[in-house]
Design brief:
The chain is α/β, with parallel strands linked by helices. It contains 21 helices and 17 strands. The chain has helices at 2-18, 47-55, 59-69, 93-106, 136-154, 170-183, 201-211, 232-253, 264-269, 272-282, 318-330, 345-357, 396-403, 405-413, 425-429, 436-456, 463-466, 476-486, 488-497, 502-521, 529-552; strands at residues 32-34, 43-45, 76-82, 86-91, 120-124, 158-165, 215-217, 222-224, 260-263, 286-289, 292-295, 306-309, 335-341, 368-372, 375-379, 382-383, 421-424. The model has no long low-confidence stretch (mean pLDDT 93).
Length: 561
């Protein structure tokens, strides 16, 4: 319907340009919005205010001229002017309810578009160090990253999901030393325990598996333990593979899979870090100071220059990040989105500065970043801080085991990424209207129940026949539901463009609320066949949009609850 209004306004603008009222050499794009108050119609535009100066007329006078030039359309019942020159459109019932036909005919493709035109987009998310179980922060990143990927795919983009494994550096060394200490019979309370060692029970599991000579198959490797507690290199290789496998299993239980697993260690073994250093040096952006090598990141907007090679010869963490992103660029990704925790905020400027210093044509502001805030887990109003298995944090597996995958995914994606999220375990487990997951899924289950009752009466819901009886709709609640359904495609486009998947969860909650209100007030399976069939068609449209929306956040649509 919004497209119809936009097209009518574009025709009116063209007519005024032909008459010389508006300049013919300028382009005027009408902005059409849903009204908040239905007393002001279904849609409103400020185009008369926006173009009044170009026309040299008062906005209300120009609004009258635009209305006079609007083509006749059965979709529009009435048009009026409000305030200083807003134009309000009241849509006809036939136009309002035609969206039901569109949804039923489109099915799972409703809301999808091809605005991306197959452009390749890479989204890197989770990217946890393989040093322990995934925590709830990783879980939020997994939910947001996967939702973004699904949203972009719904908008016609070709999306590649990538996981960057930090399998090199001090943390991996600490992991190996921790497993070795356990394999040698030490505990965190012993004097010989590594100063920066990991203390969770999972280290015990890794050590036992290593001493038992187990074979672990991870994404790209198979490692058989040597069972030698003194072979630190063998322990490191086994521990990384073991924990990578554990993380993969957690992510699959969460409904998240990746197309590419990229190893940090490959940047060193393939010479990409050294190549990056040479390029930065050749371009004149490095210098020596106090025994370290620095990069002049201040020339590209950073607040101070950064050390890239330390005095001990090792690289700071941002240098391999620059090499990694150069590799992404060379793989042909003009759009890259990094979904990370807010603690990575400081890396954004310096990585972008490093990429500019390479002088390879990478545009400023590349890549995109989506940074999420922390997650606070509560039970009975109290913060839950510890997991026995992890030792110091709540794991993603803890939440999945407590409340299930659907609730975990929904809750972790349900708020703006830049706001802190409180995950209330009691709420997520509850079967009440206060639980948004239950509330939305129950709306879908209710519609399935209606269809089962219909089938029990020996009546088959012929979708094509049902949409021919939409004239049986006319209640205000039915118009409101239809208008809400019509907003779905624009919502999907905007949520992808703004990188804000939480809009989908809010929309589904609102849609479910409107449906429950309508269902509680009006019987669907009435005796009048025209009204009955029209209401069934409306229910089917709501059901389809619920399924389509839930699929974008990786949540199921149960038929019974």
């Amino acid at each position: 319907m919004k497209d119809t209004v936009t097209q009518l306004l574009e025709a009116a603008i063209a007519a005024l340009q032909a008459d010389g009222v508006l300049p013919a050499d300028q382009t005027f794009t009408p902005n059409v919005d849903n009204t908040r108050d239905k007393a002001h119609g279904d849609f409103a535009t400020n185009v008369a205010l926006a173009t009044a100066k170009a026309a040299g007329k008062p906005p209300r006078q120009l609004a009258e001229a635009l209305i006079d030039k609007l083509p006749d359309s059965p979709a529009v019942q009435k048009v009026d002017i409000a305030g200083p020159g807003f134009i309000n459109f009241f849509m006809s019932d036939a136009s309002s309810f035609d969206i039901v036909r569109t949804i039923i005919e489109s099915g799972e493709t409703y809301g999808r578009n091809n605005s991306g035109q197959g452009e390749s987009v890479q989204i890197e998310f989770v990217s946890a160090n393989p040093t322990g179980p995934l925590h709830v922060g990783h879980g939020r990143g997994a939910a947001i990253g996967d939702c973004l990927a699904r949203l972009l795919e719904a908008n016609g983009y070709q999306v590649s999901r990538e996981f960057y494994y930090n399998d090199a550096g001090a943390q991996i060394d600490n992991l190996a030393l921790s497993v070795q200490a356990r394999a040698q019979g030490k505990t965190p309370e012993d004097e010989g325990w590594p100063a920066d060692g990991y203390r969770g029970d999972y280290i015990v599991d890794v050590a036992k598996a290593y001493l038992a000579g187990e074979t672990v198959t991870a994404d790209d490797r198979e490692v058989t333990a040597k069972a030698d507690a003194n072979d630190l290199d063998a322990i490191k290789a086994f521990a990384v593979a073991y924990l990578r496998r554990e993380q993969d299993l957690d992510l699959k239980a969460f409904g998240v899979e990746f197309d590419v697993y990229f190893l940090e260690s490959s940047l060193y073994s393939d010479g990409k870090v050294e190549e990056t250093v040479r390029m930065l040096t050749d371009n004149g952006y490095t210098y020596e100071k106090e025994g370290a090598t620095w990069l002049r990141t201040t020339e590209f907007g950073d607040d101070k220059d950064r050390v890239m090679r330390k005095t001990d010869g090792g690289y700071t963490y941002f240098l391999p990040d620059v090499a990694y992103h150069l590799d992404k660029w060379r793989r042909g990704y003009t759009t890259v989105i990094n979904e990370q925790g807010a603690d990575h905020h400081s890396t954004v400027t310096r990585v972008r500065a490093g990429l500019q210093a390479l002088k390879t044509g990478i545009p400023q502001g590349w890549p995109d970043y989506v940074l999420h805030q922390m997650v606070l887990v509560t039970r009975s109003g109290e913060e839950v801080k510890l997991s026995k298995r992890a030792g110091s944090y709540v794991t993603l597996r803890d939440l999945i085991d407590e409340v299930g995958r659907d609730a975990t995914r929904f809750f972790l994606a349900a708020r703006r990424v830049d706001s802190q999220l409180t995950f209330d375990i009691d709420l997520a487990r509850s079967q009440t209207n206060e639980n948004p997951v239950y509330y939305i899924q129950y709306a879908h289950a209710r519609i399935c129940s209606v269809l089962r009752k219909l089938a029990a009466e020996g009546i088959q819901a012929d979708r094509q026949a049902l949409v021919e009886r939409l004239d049986g709709l006319g209640l205000e609640e039915e118009r409101d539901l239809a208008n809400r359904l019509a907003q779905y495609p624009e919502l999907i486009a905007n949520a992808a463009a703004t990188r804000e998947p939480h809009h989908v969860t809010h929309y589904l909650r609102d849609l479910a609320g409107q449906f429950h209100t309508y269902y509680n007030a009006h019987k669907v399976l009435v005796e009048d066949e025209t009204i009955r069939d029209a209401r069934i068609a409306l229910c089917l449209a709501v059901q389809q949009v619920l399924v389509n929306g839930l699929s974008l956040i990786g949540v199921g649509a149960p038929e019974e609850m």
